[in-house]
User: Which sequence fits this backbone?
């Protein structure tokens, strides 16, 4: 099965002029929320991650809000593992809503897209400060540009060129960048 075709069918692969959370610009963007609206497609893409992590000893799966929540839930559902999420409060990643991490819990973070890894690493720090042991990061899409020192288990890998505003071909054409993600800059 061509997983990339599932992204195309759900119109999750976007082309245009995008302002990324990192501040960089790109002519391509993956909007996994478009894929996740179709349970059959989401199940198939997440099943690829399941195959890569099914033999790991995982106590808890954690999805950073927003994008990681649905991906984490689907992974937890397929593996039958407890699944919770972190979220930003005053722009700081936190664990709340009565969710708990026990000392020594083995945690897999599950994201929609890993680009810079900022949300993943903020989440890892929160969980480790609570005594958890982050053993890796799962994701629907790994953009292959992060500097994360943890194993990454992705359904697909996609590399898109990114640019500083000054070197962006779309900015040179005068097109306006749109910010499709959930994080405030």
Assistant:
């Amino acid at each position: 099965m061509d997983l990339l075709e599932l992204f195309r069918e759900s119109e999750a692969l976007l082309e245009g002029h995008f302002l990324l959370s990192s501040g960089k610009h790109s002519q391509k963007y993956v909007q996994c929320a478009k894929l996740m609206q179709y349970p059959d497609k989401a199940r198939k893409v997440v099943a690829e991650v399941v195959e890569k992590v099914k033999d790991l000893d995982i106590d808890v799966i954690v999805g950073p809000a927003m994008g990681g929540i649905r991906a984490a839930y689907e992974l937890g559902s397929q593996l039958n593992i407890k699944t919770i999420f972190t979220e930003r409060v005053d722009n700081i990643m936190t664990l709340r809503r009565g969710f708990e991490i026990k000392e020594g819990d083995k945690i897999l973070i599950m994201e929609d897209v890993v680009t810079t890894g900022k949300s993943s690493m903020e989440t890892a720090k929160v969980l480790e400060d609570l005594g958890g042991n982050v053993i890796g990061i799962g994701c629907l899409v790994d953009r292959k540009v992060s500097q994360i020192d943890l194993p990454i288990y992705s359904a697909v890998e996609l590399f898109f060129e990114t640019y500083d505003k000054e070197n962006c071909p779309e900015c040179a054409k005068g097109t306006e960048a749109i910010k499709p993600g959930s994080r405030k800059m």
